[in-house]
Specification:
Elements lengths: L23 E9 L2 E8 L5 H5 L2 E6 L13 H12 L4 H16 L4 E8 L2 E8 L4 E6 L5 H15 L7 H4 L2
Antiparallel strand pairs: 1-2, 1-3, 4-5, 5-6
Helix pairs in contact: 2-3, 3-4
Bound molecules: zinc ion.
The site of zinc ion has 7 residues, from loops.
């Protein structure tokens, strides 16, 4: 699976300046009622954004002649999952489940067991890099819901999620 970021807006969301090659900048996710919004921001504009962000990371544009591409590294994905895993609202719990599937595929999480809790199946997952255990409820998602959530995650993190849905659809 490709985790490379596809072309994203290649300018600062605040000042509108085009990023140079190999320029460092910040990417941040902001949580709204309607979903997550992603903004890329140059170093000098970064400030207020940090306090308001749900999650953020530092990145660097890639060298020309290819169009600038931005990467999300494994730590970013784990941190995003870690934040979602503690969520109590249903929408974020569904996103946490989808992130869990992505991280399992990437072997950043390992499934150590499953258990039942009321009418839910909980996946017991271990993250080696954080040495942390998670229990994520299997959301039993329909294909349509899965596609919608995958699209949301794909957009905010700008990931190519081809094939990931196969495992979620049943
Ligand atoms: Zn700027």
């Amino acid at each position: 699976m490709e985790w490379e970021l596809q072309s994203w807006q290649s300018s600062c969301a605040e000042c509108g300046r085009e990023f140079a090659d190999r320029e460092e900048y910040y990417s941040a996710l902001y949580s709204h009622d309607e979903g997550f919004e992603r903004k890329d921001c140059c170093i000098s504009c970064w400030g207020q954004g940090q306090r308001d962000a749900f999650s953020f990371w530092r990145a660097r544009t890639k060298k020309a002649p290819e169009p600038p591409r931005r990467f999300v590294n494994d730590d970013v994905l784990i941190e995003f999952f870690d934040r979602l895993a503690g969520a109590t609202d249903a929408r974020r719990q569904r996103l946490a489940f989808i992130m869990a599937v992505l991280l399992l595929r990437k072997r950043l999480l390992r499934e150590t067991g499953r258990r039942r809790n009321d009418n839910k199946v909980l996946w017991i997952l271990h993250c080696r890099s954080l040495d942390k255990e998670y229990e994520i409820a299997d959301q039993g998602l329909a294909a349509g819901e899965t596609a919608e959530l995958m699209q949301e995650i794909g957009q905010v993190l700008n990931l190519s999620l081809d094939g990931v849905g196969d495992r979620l659809c049943r």
